[in-house]
Give the backbone structure.
Amino acid sequence: MARSRTSQLSLGVMLAAVGAVLLATRFAPIETAPAWLLGLGLAFALLAIFQRSFGWLIAGMVLLGLGAGMVLGDRAALGLSIRAWRLVALGAAFVLVWALAAVLQLKAHWWPLPVGLVLIGLGAAPFLRHLFFVPPSVEVALRTWWPAALVVAGGVFIFTALRK
């Protein structure tokens, strides 16, 4: 079966990117991992833009988010830990997936927006705690019961699907 030009381009970009990263790790110290994540993420994001592919957009933005989170966390920007920065940057990446998909007029996908906002909220919680006084009992309740929001959201989807 003959491959289309688009699939050949995709395969070529993937093979070249993976090969370049594997080759570069032979000569560069491992501490440059965030740079490689950022580089691969940018390559995949550009591929997504050229091919108008939602899948490539997710891959590229997730890698960009993880790389940015590692860089910001290593520098302890705004006093947030590396864990918090990874969550905030990954959340921002999902919000950007949603926004770029809308701008590129890809098939409408709404799910990256709430995922991104939840990740940003979880990562920024320690920072927000210093800005606003949150009673310890409320903080414990939120940390304990936030999965209940996922259960409720899942129940809404199930109820909506069964009602149709």
Notes: Residues 5-132 form one domain. Residues 136-163 form the longest helix (28 residues). DSSP finds six helices and no strands in the chain. Helices lie at 5-27, 33-51, 54-74, 82-103, 112-131, 136-163.
